[in-house]
Amino acid sequence: xxxxxxxxxxxxxxxxxxxxxxxxxxxxxxxxxxxxxxxxxxxxxxxxxxxxxxxxxxxxxxxxxxxxxxxxxxxxxxxxxxxxxxxxxxxxxxxxxxxxxxxxxxxxxxxxxxxxxxxxxxxxxxxxxxxxxxxxxxxxxxxxxxxxxxxxxxxxxxxxxxxxxxxxxxxxxxxxxxxxxxxxxxxxxxxxxxxxxxxxxxxxxxxxxxxxxxxxxxxxxxxxxxxxxxxxxxxxxxxxxxxxxxxxxxxxxxxxxxxxxxxxxxxxxxxxxxxxxxxxxxxxxxxxxxxxxxxxxxxxxxxxxxxxxxxxxxxxxxxxxxx
Length: 323
Known about the structure:
By secondary structure, the chain is an all-alpha fold. It has helices at residues 2-16, 19-22, 31-43, 66-71, 85-91, 107-118, 142-146, 159-171, 189-195, 198-201, 203-222, 225-255, 261-283, 291-314.
């Protein structure tokens, strides 16, 4: 996602220079509940277990379940809004989309989510345990508050401390309880960064392998050797370029929010492109009569794979006719 990555860099620079985010955001006991209600109101229609919305992030199965949202490693990274896919999506108005009912989130709603993540992304406290606002201190009790010996107490010695500890335990917001899963080398910072170049790198094999089929077809039709030589050169370059593109795509798939059938078919069809391209390059000269069918099949496979990539980037209606 080059666009999101570049915007994230720009936004990171803005946050680093902003004093509002330079310090840790204080914990507001009401903030987690406010964010949970906001996600239910604005996101749960598309992000629910039975949702068929094609543009919804596949890995976010249920926006109404904040605990499962926090269990996903890339959606919410406690303490770091810029590393959180959830915040990046709402900050750049990718979610909710502009055509959604109510439109994108307001600046105030975005700030709620940013402050909540910055403060540690806590779960809401159970109902009835949120602390009440402190009452205004009475003037006549100010001296008693300063002198513990004359402070009134209806509790037995030791009982007050126990009640106070229990009250503090009740009103403390629980943490998300996330236990990070063991990560492989593809989830390390540099492989994760390089994987983001997959959408750029795939354009080379798409063009080269498709043109190889066109040049081969033209050479067979016009019976001109230079077209066949061009087809062989394009096949060789396309095969070499599809190897790193597939490797970057596999790494990117391990770090993306997309899941489900579309990602499954896109990544395995991509592997099929690599295998068929290498097979055609290795045996094309030995079996020239099979080279044209193999190149045509390869071009078709490239198109289908790219179409599933379009599903992941733009949703299943990305080629819907206007109107």
